[in-house]
Amino acid sequence: MDLMNNSVSSPSQSAPAAGSQTASQTAPHLVSERVLVLDFGSQYAQLIARRIREQNVYCEIVRHNISAETIKARNPTAIVFSGGPSSVYESNAPKCDPNIFKLGIPVLGICYGMQLASQALGGKVESCSRREFGRARLQIQSMERLFAGFPHEIDVWMSHGDQVKDLSEDFETLASTTTCPHAAVRHKTLPIYGLQFHPEVSHTSLGSTLIHNFLYNIANCEGRWHLSDFVSRAVEHIRGVVGKDRVICGLSGGVDSSVTAALLYKAIGPQLTCILIDNGLLRKNEQAAVISEFTNHFKADLRVVDATDLFLGELANIKDPQEKRKRIGKAFIDCFKLEAEKINGAKFLAQGTLYPDVIESGAAVDGPAATIKLHHNVGGLPEQLGFQLIEPLRDLFKDEVRKLGLELGLPEHLVWRHPFPGPGLAVRCLGEVTREKLEILREADEIVVSEIKNANLYRQTSQAFAVLLESQSVGVMGDARTYERAVAVRCVNTDDFMTADWSQLPYDLLATISTRIINEVRGVNRVCYDISSKPPATIEWE
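Above: the chain sequence. Below: its structure as tokens.
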């Protein structure tokens, strides 16, 4: 059992699998070398994948019960078993196809993954007398290929309630701790390795080096995954799929849609039409900024639609967050459909969907996923419009998208712009969405972002914004009692947006933000700072 993963969904609700045949997925010919991560319910499967990609090796996350036959067809260079919240000896514990071990493909099991491989190949896993969570001192007994170049002792991060008690005679121990005699193991004849600790987290010393050693010393990877190569291959793929037809791209001004548009423009040039739907839920001066950025960097066709009345009409008297998302999605489809019908020859719709979007929107191609987000971004828009969907960034993490944007020549201030949710300010305006509340929120949000930029902390924070709370609070302003709204400030730091910590901003900066909002935004008399991490909270409030 992996203690780091106790709060996540079951493996049947885990990350998407490889193998979709839609135009939106990375086509098999776009990568010549890949690693598959079998997800056993770990909230850190995405972190494992990112660590592998950092080593210039392409990586995909697949379900734990993928068949050996399917794996063989995908021809991976290596396989990684993730951690997970279950105990391998439980009757309903997730298992892998045992034929995977007969493929001759190098396997690295991490925590639950190590226990699973050990048990499947003759070992015995039991509950620990004392759960182990935190740093431990690892003594390395064998400096062979996995630990090549390592010192004899390092600090590692443990997080488990079970461990391998009896190791099969086919395995040998490579490293141990005072409480875990088999902290790293190797099969004597098969290319199968196991780690009871987590090399993917920053708390493990030389964790990236360990992953590098597995990829290059054991799996003989060549490091063919480079975003510069991704651009040329993606361009070729897009041209092959689109042909002479036209592509419509929904443009929001954020980095995801901007990079999507830039990649499509590089591939098909004048065959691209971008549509900006101003839903009345954008940030202050957003429409003008998007138009300016677009005309400065593209010569593609841009259509701007002011649909404020339509969206706010749909949201009138609606307080439930999920209902708001549904109505925004429906209004977006209706509006987009009307505009798309004016564009001749359009057969494809492009969206700036990222890997975390796919996971959190329940859009896994091989089965259900835990639906955390619910809006139009990966919803039913293509089917309702009769388009084929193109999502060229669907397999990328946010940091990779930013690097791709720079590769495509987009300016740094656009590439490093903080993310903005698909439903816009509606998910930051708690309760019913009204014009009055949106104006208050826009002014407060502008102050938050501008002050963080003035403090030169914009690049050090991953997302910063204001939230208008539904409740009002008592205050005193000018010797008079007030009963006005409260604003929450939300700033987080994250690498992949799958997990996040609140940003520990300087007190004087928070004081400046609070003072400016209360003094300059009419209708607000209280400012709070959100110090919740994800999980258990999400980054957005709704």
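The chain has three domains: 3-218, 227-415, 428-529.
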